[in-house]
């Protein structure tokens, strides 16, 4: 056995945490770094939540150092709490909606099976075996669907529970999108320069200028030549000039209210107005 020497004083100091060099703490988050992090986020709601998490537990001076106003943070916290409650209510409502939908589907499948069974009793000996076999196949398929629906509704297995939760999650997302919980309110942002009165006036100009009288209800320019959105912008600016309003420069003020070329496109979903006149390109006779 090797002889070892132990310094009791150093041992006691090490035991009580003395004499140990503490590691330097990492530098805190600066206002510039926080601004870069917020700029990298996609939605305004994510930025709100990030601001709330960063400012939680900090003093007013520390919040000022991060580039935020404490009073604004308090209002933001109050608004986010309301949105959190609305989010939870959406999740609860989504589960109820999924249960109700599954129950209705279950009852509908049961009625179809009952109707097929009654039909098979009435046509017994009258229809051919092939037609009766088709009814039997439909009955078997409906019974399988009924069993799967009942299993999902009752959540008998982990897969059924996962299927139910996924349906509830999709429904909750749809409810959140409809209620605009994670989005800005519809009235937020810059006020639109082209109002509904200008839009209706433009439509009236198109109807008066249309050369195909049988198609005036379509409100599309049929003038035997190419018509561009620049022409519609000039018409709108003529009205605004007579009213003493500021003239428009961007053609997008017209295009976002025009009838979309593809109604299923993302641009069509974001457009404004009634969409009563020609689309962005051109319309010919």
Q: Can you walk through the features of this model?
A:
Helices cover 61% and strands 0% of the residues. With 285 residues, the protein is mainly alpha-helical. The chain has three domains: 31-68, no CATH class; 82-179; 196-270, no CATH class.
Features:
285 residues, mainly alpha, 3 domains, flat, disordered C terminus
Morphology call: flat
* Class from helix and strand fractions: mainly alpha
| N-end to C-end Cα span | 107 Å
Could you give the order of the helices and strands?
A: HHHHHHHHHHH
The description of the largest β-sheet is: none
Number of domains: 3
Runs in which pLDDT lies below 50 for 5 or more consecutive residues are: 19-26, 277-285
Give the count of helical stretches.
11
Oligomeric form:
single chain
Q: Strand share of the residues?
A: under 5%
Task: Give the overall pLDDT as a whole number.
Answer: 78
Number of strands: 0
Rg measurement, Å: 34 Å
- Helix proportion range: 55-70%
List the helices and strands and how they pair.
Elements: H1 8-15, H2 31-39, H3 44-55, H4 60-65, H5 70-122, H6 129-154, H7 158-179, H8 196-209, H9 229-243, H10 252-255, H11 266-270
Helix pairs in contact: 3-5, 5-6, 5-7, 6-7, 8-9
Short description:
The protein contains eleven helices and no strands. The chain is mainly alpha-helical and about 280 residues long. It is flat.
